[in-house]
Amino acid sequence: MRALRCAYALPALAVLGGAVLGTPTAVADNKRLNDGVVANVYTVQHQAGCDTDIEINPKLRLAAQWHTNDVVNNRALNGDIGSDGSTVTDRARKAGYDGAVAETVATNPALAISGVELINQWYHRPDYHAIMADCANVDIGVWSENLIDRTVVVAVYGKGDSAPPAQGPGRAFGQPG
């Protein structure tokens, strides 16, 4: 009788184990959230009287991605300084952006954050509102990452870039040549 129970239990365990091992990992595509941040910043700027159109800059997006990943992976971080002591200016220069920059960071203790929650956090913080409403900020890069218990969004703003494009043929952006 005991051998019979084991005979039924082993296939069930194998099926269960295969289901767990075969479960794909969820990967969030935050393009909609990131683009929504850009649209909301555009709105804040135009409410402030700006007549320029803020544009997505891949160099600033890379700088935002680096800091987002740093904040996601280092729970002691919750602001502009990286785990290596880097500033937003350091990260923007490393990404190839040559203009003056500023940054806004949001950390939400949940799997996700809505664009409304995010913009409300930044809008009601005087220092972040001033960054978003600054008409001289003509470039932006936004990146966000989600963990099961934490979402981080970083926006890096730039006042113009005179450096040549960092992306070259035959290599991914941000990778050594």
UniProtKB/TrEMBL annotation:
InterPro entries: CAP_sf (IPR035940)
Signal sequence residues: 1-28
Domain of life: Bacteria
Keywords (A to Z) from UniProt: Signal
Descriptive protein name: CAP domain-containing protein
Source organism: Mycobacterium deserti
